[in-house]
Amino acid sequence: MGNNGKLLVMAAAVSAALGTSGQAAAADWVMAQAMEPPTTTHKFFGVAQASYTNYYGCDKLEGMRNVGANAFSALNGSYNAMCRVGPEFHDKQSDLNLDNLAIGLRGNLIPGKINYFVMANAGMNAANYSPLDSSRAHTISLTDATMTFSYVPGVRVRAGLMRKPGPEEMYQAIDSNSYMWPTDFIARVQIEKFFKVNSKGTTIIPGQGYGTAIKTGYDSDAGRDWGFQFFDAFKSGKWTSTYAVMVGNGSGIHKIRDYNNKKDLNLYFSTEYDLPGGKGPNKHGIKGYVYHQGGTRNFETDASGTLSQDFKFTRQGGGVKALGEIFGEGRGTHRLGLDLMYADGMIFYTPTGNVVDEAFGGQVQIAAEKGNKARGLTLDYGYYLNDKWNFGVRYAQHDVLYATIGTATWGASDKRVIKQLTFAVNYHLSPATRVTFNLEPRDAKAPNPNANAINEANSQIVVNAVGARYGLLLTHQF
């Protein structure tokens, strides 16, 4: 079924992953999330976000034809999953959403030696909804719960549930984000959804079958993991360099246990040159960063659940971000960003037909084997007119399965190219309350033809159904 596939999955999946970050020195997210000023005792904080999204440029699927026993025609009249407001995925083009309703507590237990960070989220997002399912699985979820120990010079230790070191888009605080929706690479590849069975994979053991096809997962990581992080930052003149090494379970946020008894390893390094001006998450500076993530996932490979197969994956990338008067004093405040991201193995592809909760389709397809690759590019520019107004434009491209293992399971025809151009306007009603408007033209392509003519026609119908969207987001932090 290499026909359909393309765009992803829940645009709201990252809502939980972009929770709040405390006020700290510069845009050093490792230190901002793990450390507290020695003068802080205990501090409540929180965020509420509500949004309206309209997929005005999308079309319903029409003209889909069956392939053998696969009743793709049953999808006609439905909207592509990329044209439905997650996480509930009602089959309509527009909807309201309570993206985040989070409250946290952070502070020092022993100033300079032990601090803590706890946050829970009751919003409509990946933390509380089953992956690819319209049902709410949790009323409220713990999204962060850590303690940091600073006893060994140069090696601080953080333990618990925390954000994984990785791409800037996932790491940054709400204050620093001009956009409502994640880029497709982040939503599809970096925000992990956990499933017992992959309905499309390689039959590695001769004669082995697959587990019973499923349409929903059992957890999400919301960009986080349970584990231990070793980290610290070092300052030399105007430069600050930070490293992080995290050993994690590779699990969803709702279970402390390790699903497969094999650990994930996440590595991160950044270095930043200080520029005058700004404060907290919007401290001015020029930062470069690199990261590497790797681990193992497991799928059941027979209907009884007695057989299983391990699959290894890696994620890596890097980028540059600059904020300040980077074109010279008196020329205004600007933001520039470049991110390059790569993934090998465990590429979330689509529910079949890219339609969820329908008569046919929804079965999860993941290109699990190493050799199945994706890559992402993000370019970002922002202009800060004053304390009230700022503007942004972002281009993102995701090449899904630009390389594959080249078998009948995954091949060249499964490649999808997804492009997003997002225009953002932000207006601050007050320092704590912001209104965001986004307009996002989108384009999806299935550039490599399928040898099966019906599969090829179905693929083009699915990708051509995706179009532009706009949205309005109200954010209040306290």
Automatic annotation (TrEMBL):
Superkingdom of origin organism: Bacteria
Signal peptide interval: 1-26
Keywords on record: Signal
Full protein name: Porin
Organism: Sulfuritalea hydrogenivorans sk43H
